[in-house]
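We modelled the chain as a single entity of 79 amino acids. Its sequence is:
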Amino acid sequence: MKYRIDISLRAGVKDIASEAILKTANGNADLGNGKLQSLSMGKWFIIECDDDFDIKSLCEKLLANTVIERYDIRTIIKG
């Protein structure tokens, strides 16, 4: 199996890094120049594993901090 895992902050969790990037870009004529409306960051993983591997457990126990982050598992290639 091959999966793509997307991880992002849960709704309501303050994204300080994204806010700083948005503010900096919008304050720069060469970057955002006030035209960016929103920006959010996250991380993603491409994982290949055996068909019987527990990908959800990996996400919950290692890849995502489930207190503040959400994850989305998408199957890229079925085994």
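As a brief sanity check on the tokenised model: Helices lie at 16-26, 55-63. Residues 55 and 73 are 8 Å apart (CA to CA).
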